[in-house]
Amino acid sequence: MSNVTTFDPKSILANSKQLNPQHLEYTKHEIIQRFGNPQQAIHIDQACVDIEGVKYDRPFILPIYNAQLELIQCAVLAD
Q1: pLDDT over threshold 80, residue 46
Q2: Going edge to edge, which strands form the sheet with 17-19?
Q3: Which of 13, 38, 61, 73 shows the smallest number of beta carbons within 10 Å?
């Protein structure tokens, strides 16, 4: 029996914090510090995310769209 929880990508984005490039918190995030500023809004999960035993602290949540621009899933990105 699997202990897997699936989440709707829309609810993941709705429950994340959206930051604009003008936010000080945005420019101080580890990913922005490492890779630079994409000059667009980003989504950050304010919690510690656990995926199959790997913990991510305040990860970026990247929306993934299909060819019809429908949100199909989210990716988690952490430094």
Answers
A1: yes
A2: 17-19, 42-44, 60-65, 71-77
A3: 38
Distance in Å from the first CA to the final CA of the chain = 32
Convert the pLDDT of each residue in 18-44 to its tens digit: 888 777 777 777 777 777 767 777 888
Nearest residue to 25 via CA among 60, 56, 70: 60
If phi > 0 it is left, if psi is from -120 to 50 it is alpha, else beta; for residue 13 that is alpha
| Res. 67: pLDDT tops 90 | yes
Structure tokens at 72: 């199909």
Q: What share of the chain has pLDDT > 70, as a percent?
A: 91
